[in-house]
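Section 5.1 Outputs to date
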Amino acid sequence: IGMVDMMTSRGSYLFFLPWEGYTLVGTTDVKTTPLLHHEVPEDEIQYLINECEKYLSPDLHVRRRDVMSAWYGIRPLAFDPNAKDQSSASRDHIVSHNPTNGITFVSGGKWTTWREMAQDTVDTLLRKDKELRRKAGPSISFDTPLVGCGKTKFFPAGYHENMAVRLSQEFDLAYDVAQHLVRNYGTRAAEVLSYVEPESIKGSRSGLYKHYPRLY
């Protein structure tokens, strides 16, 4: 289970997400010049460290050396070259249709809005093409579960909190390995195990393969 701070000292969001025994913390959002190689600014790392300490015991301090890794991405501010108003760029995505060549494209956006970006793009295409709209019908992506979240033969109820327990019991698998598989493959974890020799995992307390306790 993760946590989000809806109002940091900068007035922005801050996410705390558990991942493989560590915690992912972020993000920051500052203006920069796009370069081929760029290091994460130290003042941005220190800002995240300072924000983290608000949620820890006063006896605990996050040190710079506690940061195992830091990375960044550059998000472009998009504008519509086919719009009448060219005065402002958008932090959101833009779907534009070129009336000259008939090309529709999507620009900008971010990872967390990928589904909405795709739907808006397809909806724009359908509005421009009556024949395609008749064949395609309305978008179903909003109700379509992500891979690893939907119902499967082994997990007919879909994703739930006791999946690792059932996987461990059904395959007589070490619980920590079952947890790892569920975290990475969700409801398709049982399908991953179908590629493993049954006798190599039955009763195993050390993982799927000798010397290799994880299946990545």
